[in-house]
Known about the structure:
Layout: H1 3-15, H2 18-27, E1 32-33, H3 34-38, H4 45-57, E2 61-66, E3 69-74, H5 76-112
Antiparallel strand pairs: 1-3, 2-3
Helix pairs in contact: 1-4
Amino acid sequence: xxxxxTQLDHLFSALGDATRRAVLARLCQGPAAVSELAxxxxxxxxxxxxxxxxxxxxxxxxxEKNGRVRTYRLAPVGLKEAEQWLASQRSDWEKRFNxxxxxxxxxxENRDV
Length: 113
């Protein structure tokens, strides 16, 4: 499996969890410290930080430690990879649907003649 495939697996696995998506939505408003992010979720801090580690490992967020405070922010590059993969899949399916549409129209025209 290529590195790109592995990265996409990590990325979509990270996006597959509602808590992680909620963290990403919160980070769209701006960077936040772990303690600030954790306030919005009803779970133990170690469990919550595990979600943050998964997001960082997938390339969706980056963190920076300043003293005892670790701050997270979005990493748009990670989302861009997901967007590019989804766009290529959509393009392939649209091409297939267009070919099917053309084929069905051709069959319909032949019946009408």
